[in-house]
Amino acid sequence: xxxxxxxxxxxxxxxxxxxxxxxxxxxxxxxxxxxxxxxxxxxxxxxxxxxxxxxxxxxxxxxxxxxxxxxxxxxxxxxxxxxxxxxxxxxxxxxxxxxxxxxxxxxxxxxxxxxxxxxxxxxxxxxxxxxxxxxxxxxxxxxxxxxxxxxxxxxxxxxxxxxxxxxxxxxxxxxxxxxxxxxxxxxxxxxxxxxxxxxxxxxxxxxxxxxxxxxxxxxxxxxxxxxxxxxxxxxxxxxxxxxxxxxxxxxxxxxxxxxxxxxxxxxxxxxxxxxxxxxxxxxxxxxxxxxxxxxxxxxxxxxxxxxxxxxxxxxxxxxxxxxxxxxxxxxxxxxxxxxxxxxxxxxxxxxxxxxxxxxxxxxxxxxxxxxxxxxxxxxxxxxxxxxxxxxxxxxxxxxxxxxxxxxxxxxxxxxxxxxxxxxxxxxxxxxxxxxxxxxxxxxxxxxxxxxxxxxxxxxxxxxxxxxxxxxxxxx
Length: 475
Ligand code: FAD
What we know:
Elements: E1 2-7, H1 17-25, E2 28-36, H2 37-40, H3 48-66, E3 71-76, H4 78-89, E4 93-97, H5 102-117, E5 121-125, H6 147-160, H7 208-219, H8 226-229, H9 242-247, H10 252-264, H11 271-291, H12 312-323, H13 330-342, H14 347-360, H15 365-375, H16 381-391, H17 407-414, H18 419-424, H19 457-474
Parallel strand pairs: 1-2, 1-4, 2-3, 4-5
Helix pairs in contact: 4-5, 6-11, 10-11, 11-16, 13-14, 15-16
Bound molecules: flavin-adenine dinucleotide (FAD).
Keywords: Chromophore, FAD, Flavoprotein, Lyase
GO molecular function, one term: deoxyribodipyrimidine photo-lyase activity
Cofactor: FAD; (6R)-5,10-methylene-5,6,7,8-tetrahydrofolate
């Protein structure tokens, strides 16, 4: 018997659940990656994520070749291409790893139906997360809606069943990988896929399994200090692994094993458990999306859909200024410049810029969510939506609805010396550490090459409290 492994957001060979299962179940295993035209056709012709996938796929193909296998690559709609390829190869089953996004679930359902019609099986494995869907439930069997009890239950479940972390060793079964046919075509170039190179290489964002491994190696010696360092955007505090989580160039099991091992040896300091909690946030949001698909386009707490956002040309102008980093608030503008230039934004700044758009400018959070989705290298529907709903207070949050960040105090606290701001807004480099957070307050002879603030925070805050009053009545 033979099978086909369909890679999607799991662009690696090692510790790969679906590949391992297929190798165990079948005498001959083919592998395929499909550049999905239903996604790619809607993207700008320069997209860092496409570059990232392209480079990572080259590495997967090379690794499979080294193991005696071969990666088939297609550029098509997978809903048609996968069943067609399965028929062409005459395989008995297609294996892949679970995807939890509503559109991906619909796609997989369609593929499964088509395969079944041809007498083939569709086998899907848990790989992207440690615990999925309904595996972590409350004591009464309910789905969690608040993070901390979810995290505690997650940790308890892992303690009870550490076997979920067991690695899937692919190498011992590699002899079952189907070798490249004699006429195997070369991997498609970016140009053949209809794309031009982005600035990914210039940014030195490491790609593929080797890139993830290098970032992890760089991060582990810093993990003990993560709790302190992670909030300051000018400091190298976090792991920068998010794009690798997104495309599965790393194994989440491997990361959790590594962190738990550090903690067991007393080497993780205060940072390791905090970092582990971030990985649990990721799974929490994936679980929330799976059980609450209405969060795509709607508030997690439906009462928040009654809020009336700014509309019309003035709102469009405010939104454009936010996107382009010309709000007049240096930390917000520097953060947007970071996003626009690199596709990454520090977590603290994602919170600051999202709160600013929603609660200082009164713009519908869904517009900001869509902008992030377009520009973030690590864009993940569940985490991005969760982050935006957190910022708009419409999501799974134990905090009161009226939390409003002050963009000046956030700046003074988290970029006190203005180091991050100066990196992205060089026109402000000569302001003092004290002045740089609110340049309009500084009397000057010559105007700065920098806009005045779009709104005054105190006035905006009052408007937001009024805007959110409609929720207060029903919450
Ligand atoms: P680290 O601090 O090293 O964290 C390690 C990993 O944990 C991350 O790579 C990520 O996989 C996960 N993680 C960390 N924080 C969170 C979180 N709050 N929620 C879920 N997972 C988390 N993260 C995305 O991966 N994709 C997104 O599209 C995304 N959009 C966001 C939008 C908003 C408005 C906010 C407030 C947060 C968003 N996040 C998103 C979460 C977080 O900002 C990023 O995961 C983090 O900044 C990535 O950097 P890192 O890999 O260096 O993180």
